Amino acid sequence: MNAPHALLEIKGLRIAFGEQLVVHGLNLHIHAGERLALVGESGSGKSVTALSVLRLLESAQLTGQVLWQGEDLLLRSPAQMQSIRGDEIAMIFQEPMTALNPLMTVGQQISEVLQLKKGMSRRDADARAVEWLADTGIDDPKRRFMAYPHQLSGGQRQRAMMAMALSSEPRLLLADEPTTALDASLRLQMLQLLSDLQQKTGMAVLLITHDLALVRHFADRVAVMEKGQLVEQGALADVFSKPQHAYTQKLLDSRPSREGLAEAQLDARSQEMTLLEAKNLQVRYPIHKTGFRYWFQKHHFTALQGADFSIRAGTTLGVMGESGSGKSSLAQAVLGLIPHSGQLSFGGHTWQNVPAKDKALRRRVQVVFQDPYGSLSPRMTVGEIVSEGLRWHAPQTPEPQIEAQVLSTLAEVGLSVADFPDLLNRYPHAFSGGQRQRIALARALVIQPDLLVLDEPTSALDVTVQKQILQLLQSLQAKRGMAYLLITHDIDVLRAMAHQVLVLRAGQVVEAGEAIQVLNNPEHAYTRSLLEAFP
What we know:
The chain is an alpha/beta fold. It is built from 21 helices and 19 strands. Helix 18 links the parallel strand 16 and strand 17. The two termini are 32 Å apart.
């Protein structure tokens, strides 16, 4: 397809790091006001393509052409590129915690853009920054203006970074996984926000994502990359309904499936003792206020109140809700990591908040975190990471037995010495995201827990890898009879994994019941709104 009036046109772009070629002769274009989705798995070349447009890959060798309104950006000087970045082309990065300055409040960072790019006064820029925070859905924007990045949730940080990118009103927005940290309904809000801004300004958006549900709701056209090559592109309806390339079909077929769920075993286990039972569970956080009148008063924020639920062996309780609904507080209470009130019983045992007394219970309850990159120590080998819990809970175990158990557990999650020579002595950076999540699973499984708390275990993974991890979790549950507490905002993951569902809103349970009933015939309007966000 020719693009004589394209806003951005990429011709024969090749990107290499040293002798390693990562993008092979890419041809791509986007028109003013258009929404183009660039999809593919990690390592396909999506992000480096976007970074090359802004010339942010200092160590890369770029050949070909990147034509911005007819002028080649690869020939522009650094000073000329500086005037284009932000003013004409802006970017939302995938990791807001690393992209935002930890020493400045988010409001100051947005205000700085407005002062530098728009020539506003400090006062006007601050006021406009508050408005942008409000536009991107952050609650109490005046207070959030003064917050540092670490004081915001992942979703709030992502929205703050979106506000920063949009504040200069660019003609093209490069959005690299802009909604990864957001809940389903908030993702839809962000998409609607971008759509509204497009209608107002004519801004074009290049959306880089592995979330096909997001693409369905947003893009006009789709371009699919595999291993640095563009394998297919076309109108959204054509690519999704009649994919021409096998890789595109593979991505479309990667939606999580409930087929591997151990439904048949539930009746036999339903007579067993409840593994975990919570009644009137409440979590409150102290609020520190300044001023003399607050010296003798205690103030609290209630993150979770009156939650009743139970989990039986071999079953999965899925917990859904937006950011701030109390999901993380519930998970931390179950793990015994924060103070709570009400009843929380594991077969008659409760957390004592004394390490020596909680040691036996801690072995029964383990956690797998959201980010496989950040949850594994880069200074420890795989053998040290997986064996750490075993050495703590069973210190008398002979070394050969520890190694055998570690290797057996790694093989159980799909990492064998045959496929990965010298596996135990490798470090996490030598593995892909999906493989790291398997290592995190092995670390939790090696001490044979009864309950796994799964905190968004697949949200950072590509769709094909996500499906593999979910199938692994299903098979492990069927084999070991473990229970899962699954925290997620991904409705497809809930449909594939959950036997029971708990819906939280503003710290309260608004709906609970059998997964099939809640997800297919919700009774509460809030549950329906979550399901309608991404059906």
